[in-house]
Amino acid sequence: LMNVFQKHETGALVTMILMVIGSAFRIWLISKKKEETQLKWIAFGIYLLAFAAVTFTGFMGGTMVYDYMMSL
Fold this sequence. Notes:
By secondary structure, the chain is an all-alpha fold. It has helices at 2-31, 40-68.
């Protein structure tokens, strides 16, 4: 059970870090007027990783609730 909880917690932390980095990078792109360059694909890649992380986190949350009857 703690293993699933730790995976869920780690997934949430990774999601938060990726979103902060992606948002900071996008703000930098916009402030430097480079949002229409190829650099926009870096931000897209970061957001894609964040999407995967939030999907994993949700799956781990569902596993905790449905397999272990645990709610926080």
